[in-house]
From TrEMBL:
Compartment(s) where it occurs, according to its Swiss-Prot or TrEMBL record: Cell membrane
Name the record gives this protein: ABC transporter permease
Regions crossing the membrane: 21-46, 86-105, 117-137, 171-188, 218-238, 273-292
Chief localization: membrane
Family: Belongs to the binding-protein-dependent transport system permease family.
Membrane topology, record value: Multi-pass membrane protein
Keywords for this protein: Cell membrane, Membrane, Transmembrane, Transmembrane helix, Transport
Length: 301
């Protein structure tokens, strides 16, 4: 009887503990369900339908027709090519710049707190404001062309030349996003035990050898995080491209990105189902890119 009473007491305690856990989890589950799960399910529903918004909302099931049309839509491939080019160039450069800035600030440079604030200012500045400032810099008679002319270098029509329009956005975003990742690297660098560097010095290692054999391997998990966040963020380029081109993706589709194409499909052409299909294409590309970089930069098993 005593044993049975103990088992019932334990079962009651176990159930009450589980109930309490579910109660505490309920707000989070509710928020995730309403703002994450339900929108994803609705996007799946939209991608399988053509939606008529004018004259009353009407959903017409078309199956995978929206996805099939992606393969024959030239603008989808242009947007995907532009976005991939942007990701391939921006992510490595902003990561390398962030690491260089972090190592510099961690080296005991004079006035490092002021340098840290100065470097971080672009990150806390509105993206729209930064874009408008750089549009002024990139103007035909703007600051950048004046500096290039003063140095005897060729000038460019940064806003109107399809060959350089996307490069202008790249330069702006590398400059404005690297400081955010710099702070992440700086926090990780400050956690590395100095005894490792002291031991390396006793073995005759120079600064470069310590960086390659100690700093870089220890920062591998942080680099994986920085690359993952960079890939996800760059694949979602929208506001700068929209402001630069006034929503057209010009000149000659040179700044058309996948997210901008989704915006145009939904809000300009009212093709909600087609826009949802493009969004799922983007999600697949992001997942594949993240898995690939995890293969090379993720933590070793």
């Amino acid at each position: 009887m005593v044993q049975l009473r103990k088992q019932r007491t334990f079962a009651g305690w176990y159930l009450s503990e589980n109930l309490a856990g579910y109660i505490f989890m309920a707000p989070t589950i509710l928020v995730l369900g309403v703002f994450v799960v339900l929108p994803i399910l609705f996007a799946v529903y939209l991608s399988l339908h053509k939606v008529r918004l004018l004259g009353g909302i009407e959903y017409r099931f078309v199956g995978i027709e929206n996805f099939a049309n992606l393969g024959t839509d030239e603008r989808v491939w242009i947007a995907l090519r532009n976005t991939l080019e942007y990701v391939i160039i921006v992510v490595p450069l902003q990561t390398i710049l962030a690491l260089i800035l972090a190592v510099t600030l961690n080296s005991g440079i004079h006035g490092k707190n002021w340098w840290r604030i100065l470097y971080f200012l672009p990150t806390v500045t509105s993206s729209a404001v930064l874009t408008l400032i750089f549009m002024w810099i990139y103007n035909s008679n703007g600051l950048l062309n004046n500096v290039l002319a003063f140095l005897g270098l060729p000038t460019y029509n940064w806003l109107g030349d399809p060959a350089v329009a996307l490069k202008g956005i790249m330069l702006m975003n590398i400059w404005s996003t690297a400081p955010f990742f710099m702070v992440i690297y700086l926090a990780a660098l400050q956690d590395i035990p100095q005894s490792l560097y002291e031991a390396a010095e006793l073995d005759g290692a120079n600064g470069w050898q310590k960086f390659i054999n100690i700093t870089v391997p220890i920062l591998r998990p942080v680099t994986f995080f920085v690359l993952s966040m960079g890939i996800i963020g760059t694949f979602q380029l929208f506001d700068q491209s929209y402001i630069f081109s006034n929503g057209t993706g010009g000149p000659n589709n040179a700044t058309l990105t996948v997210v901008l194409l989704i915006y145009q499909s939904v809000f300009r052409y009212l093709q909600m189902g087609y826009g949802a299909a493009i969004a799922f294409l983007l999600a697949i590309v992001i997942i594949m890119a993240t898995l690939i970089q995890r293969r090379f930069f993720g933590e070793k098993a």
